[in-house]
């Protein structure tokens, strides 16, 4: 398969009064992928990104603006078994997501010695899908931090409005429009000592949903850290809660192949307890080890539904899978152990190792669909000779289980379930850059060196080995 890649950066020279930058990126491929059932299918994709940003120092305050546009295009090409003659209606369907955002903010200059620090502004955005769904949003935000001398008072407030068209609604059979208004108010107080800091407050969240139910939540918001050995050891802990807004566009980007009419419930994190330690072993080596336990209501999972092929003439009608993902929910206790170790030696060598272990305790489901128990990541950069640098990175995601549902047209009983096993994901990449002459570089990279057909989601395998080479020019 062939892949086209291009990226452009433009930044004005550094200035005390203003900044301006532009970033453009394109990545596309027209390749084929082998699925778990043995079928080779076309899985073209395209990613386009554009960002313009800038800031202006107004003397004590900084005005900033960010404008971004993203467009991702793909197809519904996956299937969990050998593809039947009568494929689901979504199969091969083209999909494209467009996302635009603008954010304008005014914040106090960090060099300003005023007792009041602030950062506030507004944002607007839109998201649309080729299949007809649209989401628009607008909001105001502000964060204020006032130094009273012996303590700091902090107020974090925001209001966001969302309107989403042509999606499934809770209380009606046909797709419709969902509107939500989100209010967040989080006052807190922070105390600072010579080698410690404590902040405590509340997090108030109110949601007005005209298509379903209104909700009002109040959560704790506490965090603390203690530095017994400055620069070498820091102990930290927090006790919080939050209502996560599972926005339409966020879900679409998390899983391209979700049913485009999805309307995901918001996830209520009743509480999140976390703690750990971080610091430096030597000047070059740093570490971070953390533990987290959270209790969540309406945690969502991706599943595929199946149904009988009623057009079949056989007595036992074969089952066909809908290859666009639906969602199921459960209440969960989630434990996470995270570790990070890094080594940086100037510009000559850098190594970063990361790992996570997860455990899910669910109220109803036997396991957490498509959630791995662990993941590992490692990256390294090395200056091989004066003009030649190389890098490598590897990502490993543990074995996962997936679930499908079968709804019988002749029964109102609970759906039958079927388990699938997803092999571990192993992604190994290598690359190098050579400084040919001033402002001109050559680069090459190999993605997925092991040529594995890693499944991102059940039935959706990724492309195999990819070679890329090109040049960069700066002026």
Task: Outline the structure in words.
It is a single chain. The protein is an all-beta fold. It has 2 domains: 1-106, no CATH class; 107-473, Maltoporin, Chain A. The mean pLDDT is 93. The protein contains 1 helix and 28 strands. The two termini are 32 Å apart. The chain has a 24-stranded mixed sheet that branches.
Q: What can be said about this structure in brief?
A:
The chain is an all-beta fold and 475 residues long. It has two domains: 1-106, no CATH class; 107-473, TonB-dependent receptor, beta-barrel domain (Maltoporin, Chain A, Beta Barrel), CATH 2.40.170.20. The chain has one helix and 28 strands.
User: Largest sheet at a glance?
Assistant: 24 strands, mixed
Q: Which regions contain 5 or more consecutive residues with pLDDT less than 50?
A: none
Number of strand elements: 28
Q: Roughly what percent helix?
A: under 10%
Going by CATH, the homologous superfamily of the largest domain would be TonB-dependent receptor, beta-barrel domain
Number of helices: 1
- Count of structural domains: 2
Based on the structure given, which CATH architecture of the largest domain is correct? Beta Barrel
Give the SSE order as H and E letters: EEEEEEEEEEEEEEHEEEEEEEEEEEEEE
Query: What overall geometry do the principal axes of the alpha carbons give?
Result: globular
The average pLDDT score comes to 93
Structural class, from helix and strand content?
mainly beta
Radius of gyration: 25 Å
Report how far apart the termini are. 32 Å
Strand percent estimate: over 45%
Question: Which CATH class of the largest domain is shown?
Answer: Mainly Beta
Q: What fold name goes in the CATH topology slot of the largest domain?
A: Maltoporin, Chain A
């Amino acid at each position: 398969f062939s892949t086209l890649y291009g990226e452009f950066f433009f930044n004005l020279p550094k200035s005390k009064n203003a900044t301006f930058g532009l970033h453009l990126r394109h990545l596309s491929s027209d390749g084929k992928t082998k699925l778990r059932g043995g079928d080779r299918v076309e899985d073209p994709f395209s990613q386009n990104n554009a960002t313009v940003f800038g800031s202006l120092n107004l003397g004590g305050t900084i005005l900033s603006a960010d404008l971004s546009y993203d467009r991702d295009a793909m197809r519904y090409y996956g299937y969990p078994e050998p593809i039947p003659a009568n494929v689901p209606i979504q199969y091969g369907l083209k999909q494209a997501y467009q996302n635009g955002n603008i954010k304008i903010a005014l914040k106090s200059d960090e060099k300003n010695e005023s007792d009041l620090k602030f950062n506030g502004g507004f944002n607007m955005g839109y998201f649309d899908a080729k299949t007809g769904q649209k989401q628009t949003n607008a909001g105001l935000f502000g964060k204020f931090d006032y130094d009273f001398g012996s303590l700091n008072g902090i107020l974090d407030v925001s209001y966001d409005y969302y309107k989403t068209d042509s999606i499934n609604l809770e209380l009606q059979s046909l797709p419709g429009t969902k509107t939500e208004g989100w209010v967040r108010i989080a006052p807190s107080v922070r105390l600072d000592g010579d080698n410690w800091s404590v902040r405590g407050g509340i997090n108030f969240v109110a949601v007005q949903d005209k298509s379903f139910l209104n909700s009002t939540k109040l959560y704790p918001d506490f965090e603390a850290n203690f530095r017994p050995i400055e620069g070498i050891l820091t102990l930290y802990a927090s006790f919080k809660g939050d209502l996560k807004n599972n926005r339409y566009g966020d879900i679409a980007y998390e899983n391209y192949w979700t049913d485009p009419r999805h309307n995901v419930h918001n996830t209520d994190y009743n509480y999140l307890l976390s703690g750990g330690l971080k610091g430096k072993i030597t000047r070059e080596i740093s570490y971070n080890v953390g533990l987290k336990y959270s209790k969540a209501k309406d945690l969502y999972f991706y599943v595929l539904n199946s149904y009988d092929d009623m057009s079949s003439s056989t007595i036992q009608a074969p089952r066909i899978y809908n290859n666009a993902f639906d969602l199921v929910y459960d209440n969960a206790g989630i434990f996470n152990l995270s570790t990070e170790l890094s080594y940086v030696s100037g510009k000559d060598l850098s190594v970063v190792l990361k790992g996570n272990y997860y455990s899910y305790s669910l109220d109803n489901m036997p396991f957490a669909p498509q959630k791995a128990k662990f993941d590992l990541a490692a990256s390294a950069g090395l200056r091989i000779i004066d003009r030649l640098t190389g890098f490598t990175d590897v990502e490993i995601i543990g074995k996962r289980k997936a679930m499908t549902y079968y709804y019988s047209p002749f029964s109102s009983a609970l759906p039958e379930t079927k388990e699938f096993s997803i092999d571990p994901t192993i992604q190994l990449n290598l690359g190098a850059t050579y400084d040919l002459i001033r402002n001109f570089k050559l680069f090459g990279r190999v993605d997925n060196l092991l040529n594995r057909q890693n499944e991102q989601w059940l039935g959706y395998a990724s492309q195999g080995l990819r070679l890329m080479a090109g040049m960069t020019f700066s002026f």
